[in-house]
Amino acid sequence: MDLVLPRECGGCGAASVAWCARCADALAQPPRAVRPAVTVGVPCFALGSYAGPHRAAVVAAKERGRRDLAAPLGRALAGAIASLRDSGDLDPPELNPLVLVPAPSRRRAARRRGGDPVVRLCLAAASAFRASAASVSEVVSVARVLTVDGGVRDSVGLSAAQRAENLAGRIGVRGARVPPGPVVLVDDVLTTGTTAAESVAALRRAGVAVDAVVVIGAVR
Ligand SMILES: [Zn+2]
Fold it and tell me: pLDDT tens across 184-200, in order?
């Protein structure tokens, strides 16, 4: 039963609920602007520091098979994007529907983890928007267009310089068209900013302008 319905909060370990109200509140705070070490070229925002429930939920979704956490994390991401629209950091939905682009992950790593948690996070956020959409322009799409070269090593344990070298020029954009509209690059964690910077640059080369990067947790 525990595999089907986790009985422990994915953010704090509290018993009997899969995601508790306190952790939901912690992730519902307005996102804050972050400045990673690497220049990304577009504004970056995090739902919080990569600590506490933010970190626990990301790790549980990524490493412990807690697919159920995509829904609450997706709702939190949708809330953060709504808040960025309210503050004027993102254009309001009147003109074009928002596009979420998941940051790429190595295919093998994603397979080992039972699917790509960042893609799942984006799909859950899009479905949270769909549930509350008042007009068709509020519908959010997910464009899975970023790919990462098979030669890239897992970044765990690499220094900032090693991460940059590991990823340099290795993120690409595959065929699928990115719809017009504000584009938000989404990742679970922002560490040095290398992945975000390479992703934004790859999209720019493909003619897609990214408006902002939004992550669940920022390391700095
Ligand atoms: Zn909790």
Answer: 999 999 999 999 999 99
Amino acid at 206: A
If you measure from the C-alpha of residue 69 to the centroid of ligand 1, how many angstroms do you get, rounded to a whole number? 11
Which 3 state secondary structure label does DSSP give 151? coil
Instruction: Please tell me the distance between residue 56's alpha carbon and the centre of ligand 1 in angstroms.
Output: 9
State how far the Cα of 31 lies from the Cα of 212, in Å rounded to an integer: 12
> Residue 13 C-alpha to ligand 1 middle, in angstroms?
6
At 88-112, the pLDDT tens digits run 999 876 667 899 999 998 766 666 6
β partners of residue 141? 99
CA of 154 to the centre of ligand 1 (A): 29
Whole-angstrom Cα distance, residue 191 to residue 86? 26
CA dist 59 and 65 (Å) reads 9
What residue ranges do the domains of the chain occupy? 29-218
Q: What is the mean pLDDT of residues 152-174?
A: 77
Task: Provide the CATH topology of domain 29-218.
Answer: Rossmann fold (3.40.50)
Q: Are 75 and 30 in contact (CB under 8 A)?
A: no
Rounded to the nearest 10 degrees, what angle do helices 52-63 and 117-132 cross at? 110
